[in-house]
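Suppose you are handed a protein chain with no further information: no name, no annotation, nothing but its sequence. What can you learn? This example shows the usual starting point.
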Amino acid sequence: VSLGAVTLFCISVFSFLVFLRYQIYYGYPLQTYLEYPIIIAQDVILLLCILHFNGKTERALFFAVIYWGGWYMLALQRWIIDLAMNLCTFISAASKLAQLQHLWQTKDSGQVSALTWSMSAYTCASKLQTT
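A reasonable first move is to predict its three-dimensional structure. Written in structure tokens, the prediction is:
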């Protein structure tokens, strides 16, 4: 698994954190966002497995610090959380474009494609379970 694929996966986990923090910040009922903590936990476990089996376990601390810092920075000001929520769609699209660029440059979709399909299937399965 390439470092780029791991980075893209981390971006998607961060967007889930933004959604969760937004829901909590504005006091929405727990039932409207209960699936997000479960999805985040599942994705973090998957990320730790990817990092462990690629021999990059020390990167887990880096991502943990980024997530923890991001969690608290989102709620510093109301405009920050609103802006982050509005940028989530753009961030998601940008991660897909970065993935397509990587595929174009390498001219090989073998490993990236398998990872992409695995993460997509995993996300869909977890959404079915939590819904």
